[in-house]
Each structure stands twice: as structure tokens, then as C-alpha cells.
Amino acid sequence: MLITIKYFGLIAEVTNTEEESLEFSGTTISDLVNALHSKYDSLKNKDFQIAQNQELVDFETKLTGDEIALLPPFAGG
Amino acid sequence: MLITIKYFGLIAEVTNTEEESLEFSGTTISDLVNALHSKYDSLKNKDFQIAQNQELVDFETKLTGDEIALLPPFAGG
Amino acid sequence: MTNKKPKNVFREGPISSDFIGNSIYKHQTKTSIGAHNIFLGQVRADKIDGKTVSAIDYTAYEDMANQKFHEIREAAFEKFDLTCMHIYHSLGIVKAGEICLFVFVSSPRRKVVFKALEYIVEAIKADVPVFGKEIFEDESHQWKVNS
Amino acid sequence: MTNKKPKNVFREGPISSDFIGNSIYKHQTKTSIGAHNIFLGQVRADKIDGKTVSAIDYTAYEDMANQKFHEIREAAFEKFDLTCMHIYHSLGIVKAGEICLFVFVSSPRRKVVFKALEYIVEAIKADVPVFGKEIFEDESHQWKVNS
User: Fold this and answer.
1) Average pLDDT over chain D, rounded to whole?
2) In angstroms, what separates the C-alpha of D24 from chain A's closest C-alpha?
3) Which residues of chain A fall short of a pLDDT of 50?
4) CB distance from A26 to chain D under 8 Å?
5) Radius of gyration of chain D measured on its C-alpha atoms
């Protein structure tokens, strides 16, 4: 499936883009993270959470094809 | 001794004055309160604290001749 | 930033929103501050036995009150890592909807401002000899008691 | 006074003291309110490894952030007896000394505003996807992490 991924803050610096679409055949968030670790080597040292359809999800969650976002530590306020 | 007494809020309404000086021969706050209860009958039903020299004192405290104040419940803010 | 002599906390009449905005503005040069917390007491148009409060007329045992405000201030600086603290209280007539108490604390970090502000406001309510005459629309009155 | 659709909490650039003063002013018609509590987040000129922060450049996952602000708002109205609540957060550049977060809660009585404000601010810090690039005077930067 075609997945849209958004990157924010420090993570967007690592990926050098704020958004991209990927054709992807995995089934879980974990599969996607592994693929992104391969694509962006220095992502491995970075702390981030994943949101799918604007809700934080854990790595076992099934990919639905909704919007995915990689979120570095929050710093509001 | 000559004692200056200040009255505030509801208490000043009862005494109909905000300040007076009394010649007084008692030795404790309690003695003074009794004298004031005699002078102002409706003071008996009122809730108040006593400050001597701007500090709250209990009824056993010795009168020093410093400024006395009768303070109804606080309502700051 | 503590000082030894009690300041006069009282202001005649209500505390305006402009005064509060300006007080916030003045803190923008203090770049060690990360968090401000402000409490405002506003006069409520309470309905009591069918009558509505239109204003509170505040009086105080001013010397003792300023001394108590000073002690609260010193205790708060002692307990909490505060950069600044300001307290203003109205005297005289403050109408329903107007502000009668303005407490402003600032610190490098947020956790301390919440604790400090609540401590200060509760101490003011409990320890400071201020008296409030609630004036109804028909000009009768009753004396306010803090709960 | 809850509403179902998320509002846009974000404002471009710093939140001015005039805006805050005006927001306070607007509440003076609400005469059931007895207590306001306001939290302001201000950008600190932190010194890190000898360099001083001159500004923070805020970005956010805006749709998710506004949804989270909305959930926080709904939860706070559920938990606490609040008359009103307002939240504003900056996006873009906010210089040291300027205000980046303004949270304003009001209630008939004071005890609830302290609890509500701390709850809301802590939830914002923990749950809302906002990111801050701390820009140093030499134009290098690092990414802020909430503590």
C-alpha cells in the first residue's frame, strides 16, 4: 500500500524532508520502522513516537494505511 | 492603663465607632473582652479575633497596652 | 528579591486588566523566567435570598495586613524557587465582574509556580485582615466570610 | 461551554501582554466568576555549553495537536467546575522573554482553578505534539525536550 509519512522537528532534520509517500508491503508499525531505519541510517539513534491517524500507537499496531507521523519528544509550552 | 481599640467591618457596625481609647484596669485580653461585652451588648453574638500589636492573641494573653484590634472573619480576595 | 520593609499591597478601587497586562509586559526583560502563574480574584454577583451582590466594599486593618502580606511573601520566597512575586489587593468599592486580588509569581520552571501561587492565595485568605461588605442592588448589605 | 469541533489553538509568533490583558478584560462581564488562574510559558535565555538561547522556533503536528488540545479541554471541563477555559500556543519564532503559551481558566470558586490549571498545563506538556528548536545567538540550534 501507499503510505504517507510526516516527519517533525529533529526527525525531519534526519530525513531531510517533512513528508513523503512510500509504497510499502509490511503489515505493522514495527515493519515500517525497520524499513525507515534502513532508509535513514541515523534515525536509529533518535528517540521518537509514532502516530497513526493522529493517535500514538505502539510498534505491534497494524498499519491501516492512514497518515503516519514520526514525532520526536514534545516540547510545548 | 489607657488602651486604644480599633474595630473593623461588622464589629465596627456593632460598636458604631472604628476606634476608641479606654481607661482600663484588667490584666488579660479576656478581661478586656468582658468589659467590651458589657459596653456593647450585641458584641456577644459576634465572631471576632483579637490582635494586640498587630498579632493575633488568645484570651489568656496579658494586656501590654499596645494597640488592640477586634477583627471579624477575614474576607480578602 | 525579598526586601525587609513591608510594601503597600493595597490599591484604591478595582485592579484593571491594563494594569495586569502591563505587569506581565514588564517581566519580558527577565529572561531567566520560564513560567508565570497569575491568580485573579473577581467579585461575583452572587444571589443571596433573592438579592444580587452589585459590589464589595473592602476595608482592612492596613498596617497589620501589609505586615501579613510581607510575611507571606517572605515565607513563599523561602519555600519556593521564585524569581518574582507581586501581590495587589483592592480597597474600597469593587463592582461585580471587577478584580479585587492580583497575585503574580514567576520562576525559571513551572512546577514551583503552581505550588507557590496556591500557597500564597490560601495564606492571604486565611491570615490577612481584610473585610468585605457585600452590597446588594437595593443598597442593603452583608459581611462576606471566606470559605 | 464545551464545543465539539477542535478550535485552532495556535497563534503565529509570541502572545502579547496586550492580548492577555484584553482576554482578562473580556471576562469582566461574566459575573458568576470568582477566580481566574492564568499560566504563561515564557522563553528562557538558557545558557547551554556557553551559548545562550535567543529564541525558540515552534512547529507542531497541527491537526493532531489541535485534536489533543480539544481532548484536554473536554477532559478538564468534565473533571472541574469551570466557567471558561482558553488555550493559546505560539508557532514560529518566539524570542527569549516572550510568551509562547497562555492558559486561562475561570470558575466561581478558587480551589478548582488551581487543580484545573495544573492538570491542563501538564497534559499540554505531555500529550501535545509541539516541537521547539532552541536557537542560539550564533544561529546554531538544538531541539528542546520537556522535563
Assistant:
1) 95
2) 20
3) none
4) no
5) 16
Question: Which CATH number is C41's domain given?
Answer: 3.90.1170.40
Question: CA end-to-end span of chain C, whole Å?
Answer: 32
Q: Treating both helix axes as pointing N-terminal to C-terminal, what angle do D62-79 and D110-127 enclose, rounded to 10 degrees?
A: 150
ipTM over 0.90: yes
> Confidence band (pLDDT; 50, 70, 90) for D146?
confident
Answer whether residue D147 is part of any domain.
no
Q: Euclidean distance between the first and final Cα of chain D, in Å?
A: 32
Task: Identify the chains in contact with A, defined as 3+ C-beta pairs within 8 A.
Answer: D
| Nearest-neighbour CA in chain A from D16: distance (Å) | 15
Decide: pTM greater than 0.80: yes
- Judging contact as 3 or more Cβ pairs under 8 Å, the answer for B and A is no
Sort out which chain C residues have CB atoms less than 8 A from B57's CB and list them: none
Residue B27 CB-density burial (10 A; 0-12 exposed, 13-18 middle, 19+ buried):
exposed
**CB-based contact, D44 to chain A, within 8 Å:** no
pLDDT value of residue C147: 74
In a domain, D41, yes or no: yes
Instruction: Tell me if chain C has a CB within 8 Å of the CB of D98.
Output: yes
Q: Does A69 touch chain D (CB under 8 A)?
A: yes
Q: What's the grid cell of residue C26?
A: 514588564
Q: Which residue of D has its CA nearest to C14?
A: D28
Confidence of residue B65 (pLDDT cuts 50, 70, 90): confident
Could you read off the pLDDT of D13-54 as tens digits, one per residue? 999 999 999 999 999 999 999 999 999 999 999 999 999 999
- The CATH number of A2-71, from 3.40.50.920, 3.40.50.720, 3.10.20.30, 3.90.1150.10, is 3.10.20.30
Domain range summary for chain A, segments of one domain joined by +: 2-71
Q: Per the CB < 8 Å rule, is C40 touching D24?
A: yes
Q: Which domain covers residue D32, as residue numbers?
A: 10-141
Cα–Cα distance, D5 to D2 (Å, whole number): 9
Low-confidence ranges of chain C (pLDDT < 50): 1-2
Residue in chain B closest to C122 (alpha carbons) equals B77
C39 with D118: Cβ contact below 8 A: no
> What integer pLDDT is reported at residue C9 of this predicted model?
97
Q: Which residues contact A26 (CB under 8 A, 6 or more apart)?
A: A32, A34, A35, A63
What three-state secondary structure class fits C104? strand
C3 lies in some domain: no
> Number of structural domains, chain C?
1
In a domain, residue C17? The reply is yes
